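In response to a reviewer's request, we include the raw inputs and outputs for one of the modeled complexes. The two entities were modeled together in a single run.
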Amino acid sequence: MKHLLSVQELSRAGTLRILDTALELNQVTDGGTKILPTLRGRTVVNLFYEDSTRTRISFERAAKRLSADVVTFSAKGSSVSKGESLKDTALTLNAMGADMIVVRHPSPGAAHRLAHAGWLESSVLNAGDGKHEHPTQALGDAFTLRAHLRPGAKDFAGLTIGIVGDVLHSRVARSNIFLLGILGAKVIVIGPPTLLPVGIENWPCEVSYSLDAYLPELDAIMMLRVQQERMNGTFFPSELEYSRTFGLNRKRARELPEHAIVMHPGPMNRGVEITAEVADSAQSVITEQVVNGLVVRMASMYLLIGGNVSVA
Amino acid sequence: MSLNSYLIVGARPYGEEEQDIRIINGRIAEIGIGLDPENLDAVQAKGRVCLPSFVDLHTHLREPGREDAETIASGSRAATLGGFSAVFAMANTAPVADTAGVVEQVWRIGRESGLVDVFPVGAVSIGLRGQALAELGAMAGSAAGVTVFSDDGHCVFDPLLMRRALEYVKTFDGVIAQHAQDPRLTQGAQMNESELSGILGLTGWPAVAEEAIIARDVLLALHVDSRLHICHVSTAGSVAIIRWAKKMGVRVSAEVTPHHLLLTEDLVAGFDPVYKVNPPLRSRADTLALREALVDGTIDIVATDHAPHPHEAKDCEWDNAAFGMLGLETALGVVVSAMRDVPNWNWRTLSDRMSSTPARIGRAINHGRPLAVGERAHLVLIDPDQGRLVVAEQLASLSGNTPYAGMTLPVSVTDVFFNGIHQVQGGVLNA
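The model returned the following structure tokens for the whole complex.
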């Protein structure tokens, strides 16, 4: 595997390899706190065309935990804001000898273009491309689900996962739906029809417009962020109507099975898609998701550019 | 020896029985078997299919304004190499072809290039802005004699402006060529709206955005009894609406591009912007409906929508790339590739859809004429068995944005006569 662009390019075995490697890294680094020499001498460039402090910091920390040299190149305050093309930036980074480009870009397929347009030789890791995919977020979520619901298992057969909200604009939802499909979980997508993409009935999931109908069946529920610009009557009538219909509040959380976990990729709109009470409850694993995102990013970097070096 | 006089030996008019064709002073003088070459240059054409040269009702030549992408001269070279004798140059140049001055300039430069007849298309609205009618009468009455009006690239979205335009062009037998795209339903659209667009996260361009405008416009054309032409029809639903409209007696014609006949949306999955085009590549079911409609005449013609773009406009990420692909030099091969296995398709049908009918819609009276004695010798010879590998760098266009690079198209244009001038020989343009 040279690039990580889309979960749809992963097999079940390839996915488990990343999750198992992440587990091993988690153990030898005590949850990502200890530094390993694995990628010493390698250069990882974080190329961020969108503001994303959380994801950028997670990738920076992942690379540093593996002793890589990390260069962060963000669209603001760089040549990009002077109108440099993606291609010219890629050629520059290639000339600088980057072993890996971690790219966050608003255009779907931007990571794919970097990897395949013939502009550079580096490995490319997609850190979110528009509405398309965010594979390491889904891998981190799979890591979290596995740890809580299927420790050590080779698949997610028998698990039912609800994904709730704005699937249309969400790369996190896309990557999660397809990755959970690869792992054999049953996925139920729930949201208003205006926020579900055309053709979703042919994806590896079931679709429902009612959250309440499915709560008792769910082993995990992932709440998606509602972007501010989708409110104000364009996709649904009001924030209040949305949270009444699709928000996870205490009453709904009580309908979940006792073992069920509550997830959110962050950043949350407390009071819109999820209430503060639920977000901070014992069922919530939202902060764990952040930590697990870090270890799967370490695992992905190691598997992409680690060569034959052993994990530690 | 007379000027522009040849004897074409053993060619097959419309792909039928072999005949010799004598050209004298740029016109067809005699058609028959075993003609005496006398003192004429003989052009050996055994087995070649001979057709009237093609007419493209929809070309972007980019001049004035974007001469880095294409010029009227380079586009004319591409056109004749593709077997065309006439092209209609769309109005979305800079400045826009919305005045008699601009259309006369395009027409005059086309005359100077001299390889094909360039017919400027006039804008429907000032600046393509869709607000006020351009001086349609002045353009029609200019030296360019404009008959086709289009805001192509933009839809004439205001129904009242569309109605007025349809009414107004009746005074000079003009036609409004509509780019059917509801702008509200296609905000930020990047590809066909489908299961694939959902998976790729690219904003969808739904079929209904085309079909709703066509439905509205055929009703308007019926109401005011005027001529409407639909540019680049791309969906099965559009075909059904046009079929209904023709049955109702609407004076509507329609075109399909070679790329919408052959290519499908699954090519977008690799995110290579060479496949980004407007309207977008659609589903397999759409291409099959378009092919059937082209055979049965619901869709009247093939038009290329030749859309050159400089290299950097495509060498980028999908969202930021320009819409459009080259079409002139590959049109014949692509059409044959898409259509050859469709029942009832033959060289006569192809000739009707690529030559006589587009000439009639555009009122290009000297083009698209039959292969007959007395007609101007606008002829193309085609090798029906010798394919051609498409190499972007070898095209005459100044741009290289062809989606067919690396493909071998099944037939090739070998010779082109324009007013009897033998200007393409062996697939190469005489300097």
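As requested, we also summarize the result in words. Chain A has two domains: 7-134+290-306, 137-285. DSSP finds ten helices and nine strands in chain A.
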